[in-house]
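Following up on my earlier message about glutamic acid. Here are the inputs again, as you asked, copied directly from the submission form:
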Amino acid sequence: MTPRVRIPVELPSAKPLLPADPDSLFGMAVEAVNGACDIVKAPEYVRAILGQPKNELMVNFPVRRDDGSYEIFKGYRIQHNNILGPYKGGIRYHPEVSLDDVKALALWMTMKCALMRLPFGGAKGGVKVNTRDLSSNELMRLTRRFTSALGNHIGPDHDIPAPDVGTNAQIMDWMMDTYINTHTDGAHQGMVHVVTGKSVGCGGSEGREKATGQGICYVLSELLPEVNLKMSKLRFSLLGFGNVGAFTARALSAEGAKLIAAMDHAAALVNPDGLPIEELHQHVIDHGSLAGFKSAGTREVSPEEFYRTPTDVFIPAALERMIDEQKANWLDCRMVAEGGNGPTTPRGAEVLQRRGIVVLPAILCNAGGVTVSYLEWVQNKMGVHWDLQRVDHELHRTIVLAARRVRVAAHRYEVDLSRAAFGVAVEHLTDTYLRRGIFP
Ligand code: GLU
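Thanks, got it. Here's what our run produced:
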């Protein structure tokens, strides 16, 4: 006899309760998932599962400073969901890292990997630290001690960290080396794929460093026609000039687009004829920020003037919650392409929608990073090294297919591209839950 399928009515609440804090990033992320569940009519138990992370790990660990003193640091690893594969997501080093933010970022990784059809779940981690206060040796000791504190909670088929804000290939190399040296049985010696975003010399992939910026460029090429814009005539502004900002600027300018305005924590610059990207990048490498940059036709402006500068596409590639209600009202653009995670507050998003500004959501726009992370993981598992051309080709294919899925869903469900992206992700997750069922 076929067993009867029971609807799991005993699950606590249809909609997970939102945290009281209206600025809670996790609350914002859960709202987006709730909206997507409504659109695709996901079963209530899928909504309830996605409304909380599976595991929340917090560690406090000491690090020896160069002067011989010891300082305690707080680290996090949130594993949101692994129905599609091992947990996957970056490690952030920033003084503002908090449990609520890391939970939101982990949830977005679940959505991002599902949307891109990568065989990964979602996770995020971080350490509350200002890396500017540490020497390179202190940073290494912090990274090694944090990795050893994570212990068996990470692993190449279990949870795979990567770079995020404040971390880079060097930190990933140290994480990988520490993991291998703290798992000393022979079976672990080849497991360089415990982290991605490593340097090429340590098993990293070609094209990983530029991947997020390159991905933004591919997404825009595919979706600019939605707002009747052409890449070769595109004028864009960048908020943030770190890894994502700099590589986005390079990729877009290689296609003929012009960077009109750029702002970071120290300065805002405008040049209607286009800012010189290579010089700007070199200046940031040499001086740590955009402050003090000079070139013909470039003016330093106030933050308000920066936001109000007319442009076709505005690309926030910095931290979360940058575009609030006020900034959304200031913007003079047709499209916002979210290069960083969660840059728009819910009230900011409402204003953008009211003003008819199209938003390309981060889970699509900045998915180039995790996509090349996946390619790195595959190469490590196979013991091969692909050339840049092959990596770029795979990245392009994966991103363009995802962008098309989002466009089709936007038409099918008659929603904006942002809601459609979450809808596509939740649809895929739901399909997998329905096929696999809930253990036991
Ligand atoms: N930190 C990046 C992100 O937010 C990359 C994550 C990864 O490569 O796993 O998507």
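One observation from looking it over: The longest helix spans residues 388-413. Hope that helps, and feel free to reply on this thread.
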